[in-house]
Specification:
single chain, mainly alpha, 3 helices, 86% helix
Length: 81
């Protein structure tokens, strides 16, 4: 919710446009979140040595932000059509 709202503000969108983008992005992002993060956290806490946990989590966070950015761009392309 924070990502979509802040991206909408930075893109100069109004409240209605942000709300529309949120409704387009929320369900796909939430489903992906449920698929990805439990697995990542399981790997992080069960398999990852303690000295690599923070770098692993940070790398996964960067990849997640990239996914959200691509989802945001996909929603923009959908609106433009």
């Amino acid at each position: 919710m924070l990502f979509v709202g802040s991206m909408g503000i930075m893109e100069g969108r109004g409240g209605d446009e942000i709300q529309q983008k949120f409704s387009d992005m929320y369900i796909p992002a939430l489903i992906a979140n449920w698929k990805v993060w439990p697995l990542i956290q399981t790997i992080n806490f069960k398999l990852m040595p303690i000295q690599y946990r923070v770098p692993f989590q940070s790398t996964c966070g960067i990849a997640w932000t990239l996914y959200l950015s691509l989802l945001n761009a996909k929603a923009d392309a959908k609106e433009d059509q």
